[in-house]
Design brief:
- The complex is a heterodimer of chains A (112) and B (116).
- Chain A is an all-beta fold.
- In chain A, 0% of the residues lie in helices and 58% in strands.
- Chain B has 116 residues and is mostly beta strands.
- Chain B has a single domain, classed as Immunoglobulin-like, CATH 2.60.40.
- Chain B contains no helices and twelve strands.
- In chain B, strands 2, 5, 6, 10, 11 and 12 form a six-stranded mixed sheet that branches. A four-stranded antiparallel sheet of chain B has the order 3-9-8-7, with no helix packed on it. In chain B, strands 1-4 form a two-stranded antiparallel ribbon.
- In chain B, β10 and β11 form a beta hairpin.
- The chains are: A mainly beta (112), B mainly beta (116).
- Chains A and B meet through β5, β9 and β10 of A and β6 and β11 of B.
């Protein structure tokens, strides 16, 4: 396991409030990713990072921002949460030459 | 953009029987990787098996094996001697070797139910 910890694991919030999800890894992996999981869509990439302060957008990045100030931490921020952002969010890191991802346990976010 | 399609939203199998989950993908690349991930009710994503496109031999991991048909862009997962613990959501995923960021593209998933 890549030692990936997500926090919080569960959160309920109201529309319009800011939310930050944290991903912490202990393996010094360069690449980190945020995905969201929704029924019928599988996992879709929100943002990813290829190093400290180096990030890029994924396919569903609107409404989300990320930051990576340290190798081990990758933060996902919803500046103003909307009901469409109710989802399960997964952090992952890349390891190995074949590039499979190792995932955290997921964070369930409910926006009322 | 690459896409991954899992055409079976749900599948059922009797315990000890064999089941095959389907996956097709769309790409113009020749060098890539394919994966199957399992997600049990605990929500944890677990890598089941991976296949490198340049390898002709199908990958096998214990009771799990794949049928990789590169020309047909098909990557099915066969589970033999199904067990109750195999019940989960299964995701097929694709990664292009040349895409910056090494991002995985996932299919929508197949729910596998195992009947005792």
């Amino acid at each position: 396991d890549a030692g990936i910890t997500q926090s919080p694991r569960h959160k309920v919030t109201e529309t319009g409030t800011p939310v930050t999800l944290r991903c912490h890894q202990t393996e010094n992996h360069r690449y980190m990713y945020w995905y969201r999981q929704d029924p019928g869509h599988g996992l879709r990439l929100i943002h990813y990072s290829y190093g400290v302060k180096d990030t890029d957008k994924g396919e569903v990045s609107d409404g989300y921002s990320v930051s990576r100030s340290k190798t081990e931490d990758f933060l996902l921020t919803l500046e103003s949460a909307t009901s469409s952002q109710t989802s399960v969010y997964f952090c992952a890191t890349r390891t190995g030459p074949t590039g499979e991802l190792f995932f955290g346990e997921g964070s369930r976010l409910t926006v009322l | 953009a690459q896409t991954v399609t899992q055409s079976q939203p749900e599948m059922s199998v009797q315990e000890a029987e064999t089941v095959t989950l389907s996956c097709t993908y769309d790409t113009s690349e020749s060098d890539y990787y394919l994966f199957w991930y399992k997600q049990p009710p605990s929500r944890q994503m677990i890598l089941v098996i991976r296949q490198e496109a340049y390898k002709q031999q199908n990958a096998t991991e214990n009771r799990f094996s794949v049928n990789f048909q590169k020309a047909a862009k098909s990557f099915s997962l066969k589970i033999s001697d199904s067990q109750l613990g195999d019940a989960a959501m299964y995701f097929c995923a694709y990664r292009n070797s040349r895409t910056f960021g090494n991002k995985l593209v996932f299919g929508a998933g197949t729910i596998l139910r195992v009947k005792s």
